[in-house]
Design goal:
- By secondary structure, this protein is α+β, with helices and mostly antiparallel strands.
- It is built from 5 helices and 7 strands; from the N terminus they run ββββαβααβαβα.
- The strands form 2 sheets. It has a 4-stranded antiparallel sheet. Strands 6-5-7 form a 3-stranded antiparallel sheet.
- The chain starts with 5 loop residues before the first strand and ends with a helix.
Length: 139
Amino acid sequence: MDDCQAAVPVECDSCDGPAVGQVYETIIDGRLHWVLTHECGDSFVEAMGWDETPGDLRQALLDQCGTYRLRLSAEVTGVAVMRVLRAGGTSLAAVPEALAVLTGPGRPGTEMELQLLAGRLRAAGASATVERDRDATDG
């Protein structure tokens, strides 16, 4: 796994001005954890959250760290895999399409959000891989 951090502009109330922050994601206790840090004078400011990285921070990670793809082997079947997808917010009607994407072109996302889902899918018996999307990063 890469340890990528993305630089993002931060409006700091304490500094009275713009600053450059660093955002990264990690997995802690089976949950996605995002962290945004920046220096403010002589102090260090940190914001963080769980489960879903805010859209602008997520986009900075995709732009600067690259897009990753989660793929499943074509032999994927089973209620356990469906349960993982449903628990992640996929509607019952959308499960067949989600499986088609996962066994075909792959689901794009940040490395950590896909590693988290891949781990859950592996625990359900699926063969899941996460790879850097070379098409998006090789330009």
